[in-house]
Amino acid sequence: MTNFDYLKPVSLKEACVLRAEHAGVSQLLLGGTDLIVEMDQGLLSPDFLIDLREIGDLRGIRVEKDDIVIGAAVTFTELIKSKTITDQCQALIEASKLVASVGVRNVATLAGNICHAVPSAEGAAPLLVRDAELTAVSTKGERRISIHDFFTGPRKTALKAEEIVTAIHIPRNSLKSGENYQKLGRYRGEDLAQVGVAVAVDEKYRYKIAYAAVGPVPLRITKAEEILQGGPPGEKSLPAAVEAVKKAVSPITDIRASKEYRLYMCGIMLEKAVNTAVQRMKGNKAGGQA
Amino acid sequence: MKADRKKEITFTLNGNEVSVLVSPDEKLLDVLRDTLGMTSPKYGCGKGECGACTVLMNGKTVRSCIMLAVQADQCEIVTLEGFQKNGITDIQETFLKHNAFQCGFCAPGFILSTDELLRENPEPDEEEIRDALAGNLCRCTGYKNIIEAVEEMVENRKKGAKR
């Protein structure tokens, strides 16, 4: 690991000042489970680590009028234990339970997972199907970034070097809706997704479909959504949606799986996820998912 | 590393308050083992994947090989040494009975993960046990005896067997 200085601001304001002062040469630390491994591997070598754990503004999950707000310091374990998330964000719960191991989930945060922005990020697809937004702050002010605009390349995001993500906003559902997340992995405990897919559907049969690990960034596949829109998955519409997915994704062959296998599984997993989401939607109450 | 970059951290280790001067880049695992002499957490993969470095931080398992020592400042850390300071626990006795470990390198991680599981969910089923222990890698025995031992612990605790 390189030489770096460790800073622990006690307020968001102080953190923004430090972030501005060290723009481009700092990394933000919460759980650090991705960051520290990458620093060890020499992939990142910041001059400053800014530890955000003392900042109370970043903690907790709260329900506002239109949104569920997840603080940037909320860990995957906190998400899994949250009744709000369990009741209203089924795909996010399923994905959270599949992140690494308990010992990692106890400190790793959803915000960190998203900001780290690897193509296989477990939190990405569930947020894409909910049109989530991120709040980013800096000394210059605050802005909202749509999750759809956030991922700009492998490990690259729309976040500016002086900004800090403080919260993730998930719009609440007013209609009956259902979700499912499917992950293709080799074993439990510590395995990145070879393919990840999230599907959300509401009672008007409007679908949202997003994939991870099959392209340079996690991506929503609107073409497949449009094919399915307006009704339950049918003998013609579901295979057509699968074909649309296969055209939209661009998986690669790597140590975990071949391109061909990933492409094939994209289809199988879409069928499973769509059918499960529709079943759940039918059984759920308006606004809730459990 | 400039000397003035060093930080003094204070935390509770197995019930005792300790203060140590650490470099920002020092891992919690290295400080526990090399500075403070707690050798139950092991260096396995160094990437947080195998669980050999597991310790409890504020009652929750963490991977000390991918955690900076500065992150433990003001926290409560328990290693296996502290966990068993009043003698071996029913968790360990049951693992022993099932011959769950051979070399023992992974044992601290499995023991602390089992403790965390049974505190959070006193009656886990096999799937829940497997999920909770996933990410602790044993290269000797396979996992059958480990899982069976935890199942027996659950049964014993249900029957009110004394800890």
Q: Tally the structural domains of chain A.
A: 2
Rg estimate of chain A, integer Å: 19 Å
Distance between the termini of chain B: 47 Å
- Give the count of helical stretches of chain B: 6
Share of helix of chain A, binned: 25-40%
At CATH level 3, the topology of the largest domain in chain A is Uridine Diphospho-n-acetylenolpyruvylglucosamine Reductase, domain 3
What's the CATH class of the largest domain in chain B, please? Answer: Alpha Beta
Tell me the CATH architecture of the largest domain in chain B.
Answer: Roll
Number of helices of chain A: 12
Overall geometry of chain A comes to: globular
Strand count, sense and closure of the main sheet of chain B?
A: 5 strands, mixed
Helix content of chain B: 25-40%
Description:
The complex is a heterodimer of chains A (290) and B (163). With 290 residues, chain A is α+β, with helices and mostly antiparallel strands. Chain A folds into two domains: 5-171, 2-Layer Sandwich (Uridine Diphospho-n-acetylenolpyruvylglucosamine Reductase, domain 3), CATH 3.30.465.10; 177-283, CO dehydrogenase flavoprotein, C-terminal domain (Enolase-like, domain 1). Chain A has twelve helices and 14 strands. Chain A has helices at 12-21, 35-40, 76-81, 83-88, 90-97, 102-105, 110-116, 124-128, 147-150, 222-228, 237-248, 259-283; strands at residues 5-7, 26-29, 48-51, 61-63, 67-71, 133-138, 141-146, 151-153, 156-157, 164-171, 177-184, 195-202, 207-212, 219-220. Chain A has a five-stranded antiparallel beta sheet with strand order 4-5-10-6-7. A four-stranded antiparallel beta sheet of chain A has the order 11-12-13-14. A three-stranded parallel beta sheet of chain A has the order 1-3-2, with helices on one face. In chain A, strand 13 (207-212) and strand 14 form a beta hairpin. With 163 residues, chain B is α+β, with helices and mostly antiparallel strands. Chain B folds into two domains: 3-83, Ubiquitin-like (UB roll); 90-158, DNA polymerase, domain 1, CATH 1.10.150.120. Chain B has helices at 28-35, 80-83, 90-97, 107-120, 126-133, 144-158; strands at residues 7-13, 16-22, 54-57, 60-63, 76-78. Chain B has a five-stranded mixed beta sheet with strand order 2-1-5-3-4, sandwiched between helices. In chain B, strand 1 and strand 2 form a beta hairpin. Chain B is elongated and about 55 Å long. Chain B starts with 6 loop residues before the first strand and ends in a 5-residue tail after the last helix. Classes of the chains: A alpha+beta (290), B alpha+beta (163). The interface between A and B is medium-sized, with 29 and 35 residues.
